[in-house]
């Protein structure tokens, strides 16, 4: 048997039809001499997997104790690979077909060329509806405004295994894998790849889960967001104080005052001043309180979420 060079990490939840087609496509795409292996992370599925799967590539499956969500499943999978599956490359992809198996070799080739860099795919053509595309634009704008960083890629990526030992010690990995890579300062590179079409069924992520996913990406940069909120609140406080000073000057030092409006505007500015102060104070204390809490490190705590490990059967 060839030594494992490439481990493909597939988070999975209640999508057996898509998974079966994806495994068949991977099997047809990956050359035998690559020494590939698949790690399937069953994220608390309530539907059974097929008894035999269409792949000659060895498949390990770890079943989680409950549904943790896509990003946490990736964190557990990366930690498990680092501890149990020696390899040179780790490829992360979705199990629904939107990450095209034919592009695997492009990511691996780009990673080999770039050396010690994580390679992400940036999306060219998207086949999502208008609602999703508009939401994605808003998400990217909010991410840039709140964090000062750009994000234009998702999970589809190739990681040099040598970097796993650093990546899995970031607790932010539980919230968002791409965001954690950006925050960590680990070198990465992007290549443009078109997004595929889901093999079967519909996405298991509701609108609420998509919003929470976006917020999870931003939470990786919590200290930057809180700093920006505190600065913004302080500037708003200064503006309110200047407005109050201007109102009193106009009211008592000029003849421009109109009876009644000075007290109304002053009250409004005082409310803005108080709210801004409270937002700034709460943001700072929330961050300081969070810093005192013990961190849940994926590399240390991933075992707590694994129910079983098994090797899956293949067809033929």
Description:
Helices cover 48% and strands 16% of the residues. With 316 residues, it is of the alpha/beta class. It folds into two domains: 6-202 and 297-311, Spore Coat Polysaccharide Biosynthesis Protein SpsA, Chain A (Alpha-Beta Complex); 223-292. α1 links the parallel β1 and β2. It is elongated, with a radius of gyration of 25 Å. The two termini are 18 Å apart.
Which fold does the CATH topology of the largest domain refer to? Spore Coat Polysaccharide Biosynthesis Protein SpsA, Chain A
Instruction: Measure the end-to-end span.
Output: 18 Å
What sequence of helices (H) and strands (E) makes up the elements? EHEEHEHEHEHHEHHHHE
CATH superfamily of the largest domain: Spore Coat Polysaccharide Biosynthesis Protein SpsA, Chain A
Q: Do you know the CATH architecture of the largest domain?
A: Alpha-Beta Complex
Strand numbers in spatial order across the main sheet: 7-5-6-4-1-2-3-8
Residue fraction in strands: 15-25%
Oligomer type:
single chain
Low-pLDDT runs: none
Please sum up the structure shown:
This protein is α/β, with parallel strands linked by helices and 316 residues long.
């Amino acid at each position: 048997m060839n030594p494992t060079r490439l481990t493909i990490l597939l988070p999975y939840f209640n999508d057996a039809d898509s998974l079966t087609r994806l495994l068949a496509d991977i099997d047809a795409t990956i050359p035998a001499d690559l020494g590939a292996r698949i790690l399937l992370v069953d994220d608390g599925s309530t539907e059974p997997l097929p008894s035999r799967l269409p792949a000659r590539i060895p498949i390990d499956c770890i079943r989680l104790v409950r549904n943790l969500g896509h990003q946490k499943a990736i964190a557990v999978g990366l930690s498990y690979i680092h501890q149990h599956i020696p390899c040179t490359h780790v490829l992360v992809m979705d199990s629904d077909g939107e990450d095209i198996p034919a592009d695997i070799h492009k990511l691996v080739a780009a990673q080999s060329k770039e050396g010690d860099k994580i390679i992400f795919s940036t999306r060219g053509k998207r086949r999502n509806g208008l609602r999703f595309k508009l939401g994605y634009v808003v998400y990217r704008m909010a991410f840039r405004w709140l964090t000062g960083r750009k994000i234009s890629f998702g999970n589809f990526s190739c990681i040099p295994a040598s970097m796993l030992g650093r990546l899995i010690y970031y607790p932010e990995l539980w919230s968002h894998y791409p965001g954690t890579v950006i925050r960590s300062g680990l070198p990465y590179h992007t290549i443009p790849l078109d997004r595929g079409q889901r093999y079967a069924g519909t996405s298991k992520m509701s609108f609420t889960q998509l919003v929470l996913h976006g917020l999870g990406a931003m939470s990786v940069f919590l200290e930057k967001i809180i700093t920006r909120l505190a600065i913004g609140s302080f500037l708003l406080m200064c503006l309110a104080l200047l407005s109050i000073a201007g109102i009193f000057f106009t009211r008592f030092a000029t003849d421009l005052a109109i009876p009644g409006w000075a007290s109304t505007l002053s009250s409004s500015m005082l409310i803005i001043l108080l709210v801004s102060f409270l937002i700034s104070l709460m943001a700072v204390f929330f961050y300081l309180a969070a810093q005192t809490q013990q961190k849940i490190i994926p590399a240390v705590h991933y075992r707590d979420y694994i129910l079983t490990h098994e090797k899956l059967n293949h067809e033929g």
